[in-house]
Design brief:
CATH class of chain A: Mainly Beta
Number of domains of chain A: 1
Shape of chain A: globular
Number of strands of chain A: 10
Oligomer: homodimer
Number of helices of chain A: 5
Radius of gyration of chain A: 20 Å
CATH architecture of chain A: Roll
Order of helices and strands of chain A: EHEEEEHEEHHEEEH
């Protein structure tokens, strides 16, 4: 599997054993995440905005209102950073100093461009919908021309990316293992609850399986108990 | 309750009914979140880095290795943005166009400074530990001088902040309500599982209540079923 080549931007300087630049690791995290945080700067002021997305190869799609300030700024092709973080657990060490979190994150650098081709735009919207909840595109009413005109879809090309992963138990200083302090991991996971029907839904319509049994793909939690 | 005064940076331009600038709303979101995403720019390149934090009044504390590139950059006092996002559910509308997410997010603008006072530094570390898992500071071995020297703690002063919140069912176009498409919300929540003991823990030591019954404070989920 190929890797991204780290430059000064994404090379991990500390704890390098936690770092990965291979596409397999990076794609898996990007494909599990529901939200990314996009960073861009306007006149030296950074902005960090959460939004949904989808990945196709080394491209991330994001969308929103054509009036969105973020999308208008990003489509200028300014340098941007997209970060996806999955939180897997709280790591309780015997010392405060060695407390940590189990997590998987990707930091990707690149630039975005507006998708103008109509077919490509619809395909990107389909990818975003299916990324969030696979199976939904086929059921919902697809966008009409007016809606497409009100929507901007951007493709963010990943020029460089790296993943950071921490898993497993705390790592204490050797002399601290004798302390009478409970140590271990509190696993965290994002769970879906039973779907809540729209109050205006017709009686007798059951939720589709993809909603009733919703779960993220590729879940690979470090702190999972089972 | 007082409010932050929005300037051009944080004034919501679209869907203004989803926006809040009062401290009560903003504090509640910041106090529930476990991770923030910090944005800063170096030579025009934005970086977005996930990290833990704690809030005290209008200050956010963040910490890390004294060798951390992010902390070294932030402590210069460069303009920064800290964003906290809580994901509450997937909103399935009858049309793709009206799909959304239920979420609560805060975008805060400000600058950070290194905490040099020893007592203040320890107090900030205590705040971060207690923010993540209340009760832990009293149990774990507190930092010694060597550990404190290896740790940088920054205080980020919130100059301006705004919250965005979406709750409730999908809002479809009136003519779409007749479509035979299931609509509603798939609630999402971050759950703690049973703690996993460190393999090197002495036999018979039970996890403390704050780990065994871990939950976030102020949970106020829009899509909660019960």
């Amino acid at each position: 599997m190929t890797t991204f080549t780290p430059t000064g931007r994404s090379k991990l300087r500390r704890l390098p054993t936690r770092g990965y630049t291979d596409r397999e690791t990076i794609y898996k995290i990007l494909d599990e995440g529901l939200l990314c945080h996009i960073g861009f700067a306007v006149d030296g002021q950074p902005y960090v905005i959460p939004t949904s997305y989808a990945r196709a190869e080394d491209t991330l799609y994001v969308h929103g209102s054509a009036a969105s300030r973020m999308l208008k700024e990003l489509q200028k092709g300014v340098p941007a950073c997209v970060t996806v973080t999955l939180l897997d657990g709280l790591v309780l060490a015997r010392s405060v100093f060695h407390h940590s979190m189990n997590y998987r994150s990707v930091v990707a650098f690149g630039r975005a461009a507006l998708i103008t081709d109509a077919d490509k735009k619809i395909e990107a919207l389909r990818a975003i919908t299916e990324h969030i909840i696979s199976g939904r595109w086929a059921d919902a009413r697809t966008p009409n021309e007016k809606e497409l005109n009100q929507t901007s879809v951007l493709e963010f090309s990943i020029e460089e990316a790296s993943a950071k992963i921490r898993t497993g138990p705390p790592l204490d200083d050797e002399e601290d293992y004798a302390l009478p302090v409970w140590a271990g991991v509190v696993p965290l996971e994002l769970n879906a609850l039973a779907p809540i029907r729209d109050p205006r839904l017709s009686d007798g319509m059951a939720p589709p399986t993809y909603a009733a049994e919703y779960q993220r793909p590729n879940s690979n939690r470090s702190g999972r108990k089972d």
